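Posting for a labmate who doesn't have an account.
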Amino acid sequence: MINVIINGCNGRMGQVLVNEISKDKDMTITSGIDINSEKYNNKFPVFKEIYSNNTKADVIIDFSNPNSLTNLLDYAVKNKIRLIIATTGFSPQDIENIKQASKHIPIFHSANMSLGINVLINLVKKTAPILNDLFDIEIIEKHHSHKIDSPSGTAYMIAHEINKTLKNSKHFVFGRHAKNQTRKKDEIGIHAIRGGTVVGKHEVIFAGLDEIIEIKHSAASKSVFAVGAIKAAKFLLTKDNGLYGMQDLIR
């Protein structure tokens, strides 16, 4: 049995994850961490902060807030617990801290836990070098009105992966308001839309002369991210110290 601590268990994604793990015969939740510890009547103990936790686990799955990262990394490293980080909105320093912590424990980090979105990334990485000189690249992401970070971590991830295949020859342009000039060839445009209950939609557009290629992914429910996190947890149990992501799992 795989014992799991959920950091952010009473958030929207945390509760979806609780529900998905309850269906998995190989996993059980030993405890949860959430500042709103009494929001739901969970079947496991919930602590306001991670240092109060008195249960043991094989892995921590984090769907919380970037502000909790420092304590999360410190606790996981000190207790030698594998860590799944599915939170978005991290700063460059946060990412560096994750990399440093992964020298001591196995860490799985992805801005999007959906298997489908990571297949999309594989597709656009293959497409971009072929079309680079003749096609413009634009990324559009759509999310619900409660999402805080913008553009989404997934949009950044897609853009960075495309740019890697193009030897980092592009720079990112966020929206085009008040930009009274024509589009430059070395741009990747990134655009964010917020509204309603949209779970998550990402679209990569390759626009050329008289033809357009669109590669899209839509998440119909948050369950796809929870299922991906569960797969990541099982994957990480067999791994040594280091930093892993969805591309490692897919391979």
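Reply:
Got it, the structure tokens are right above this. The chain has two domains: 2-109+222-250, 115-219.
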